[in-house]
Amino acid sequence: MKVIHTIKELKEYVHQCKKDGRSIGLVTTMGALHEGHASLIQAARKENDFVITSVFVNPTQFGPNEDYEAYPRTLEADAKVAEAAGADLLFAPSPAEMYPHKDMTWVEVTGPITKVLCGRTRPIHFRGVATVCTKFFNLTECDRAYYGLKDAQQTQVLQRMVEDLFMNVELRLMPIVREADGLAKSSRNVYLSKEERTAALVLSRSLSHAKEAFEAGERNKQKLIDQVTKEIEAEPMSDIDYVEMYGMPGLPEVGETIEGQVLLALAVRFGKTRLIDNVILG
């Protein structure tokens, strides 16, 4: 696996792949790679001739008081994970490489899909995500791009963007990868103290109980939300940002009685660390 840092180098690899008629799979990451990222790279390896992984802590998706400066940067370790999972090329550009002009061109998905859930408290986040992913899709000319459903809202925003802008990329959405005790894999898990990490298990536990209730026949939206909220609130170290439900795909509003497939999603702080998790019902 080769590690490169410039757009010029990336374009040379992509040009050669296209010339040879090889398919390209892309996994975009912000680094601090874990088994969740590795599973995406492995999926890309199975379905494509050439696999590109990007490592870029994207400044435009962080708000003023978020953890951009503190976000883990572990390129050497990331390269090992990416190579072991089957990546052919690791692209790790600088912010100046990805954003060459001070006055930027933005890609923004509008409407409720970017205003609910994480969009409510992170108003610029999805504009940054959409913009940087458009750049990566254009640069790599990828046939398929791989995303984990832990970031379920992000997957729906990117799907809308791809559809609206007629992009020639197929989004492959992959299951959440969890620790043995149920905690969803996340680069931010390293911020948790031992006590906070134990407390955070309430997230996957409460979602699992909600799924059990749904499978037993519960279809009242508010009852399921209340059940999860109550269980998390019983954990003293938790501070709930949201527990909400929207339709899938596209995150439309859900009526009082659940029909079709829905996303039950949550964001909760433990100390200074904000974690997200979700379950798809139906």
Description:
The chain starts with a strand and ends with a strand. The strands form 2 sheets. Strands 1-4-3-2-5-6 form a 6-stranded parallel beta sheet, sandwiched between helices. Strands 7-8-9 form a 3-stranded antiparallel beta sheet. It has 2 domains: 173 residues, HUPs (Rossmann fold), CATH 3.40.50; 95 residues, 2-Layer Sandwich (Pantoate--beta-alanine Ligase, Chain: A,domain 2). 38% of the residues are buried. It is globular. The protein is 38% helix and 20% strand. Helix 2 packs across helix 3 and helix 9 runs antiparallel to helix 10. It is an alpha/beta fold.
Task: Throw out a few tags for this protein.
282 residues; alpha/beta; Rossmann fold; Pantoate--beta-alanine Ligase, Chain: A,domain 2; 2 domains; 6-stranded parallel sheet; 38% helix
Extended strand count? 9
Low-confidence stretches: none
> Largest sheet, order of strands side by side?
1-4-3-2-5-6
The main sheet comes to: 6 strands, parallel
User: Overall 3D geometry?
Assistant: globular
Number of helices: 10
Mean pLDDT: 97
Radius of gyration: 19 Å
> What is the chains' assembly state?
single chain
Lay out the secondary structure.
Blueprint (H helix, E strand, L loop, with lengths): L1 E3 L2 H13 L4 E6 L5 H13 L2 E6 L19 H11 L3 E3 L3 H4 L19 H4 L3 H16 L3 E5 L3 H13 L5 E5 L19 H6 L1 H15 L5 H13 L4 E10 L14 E9 L2 E9 L1
Helix pairs in contact: 2-3, 6-7, 9-10
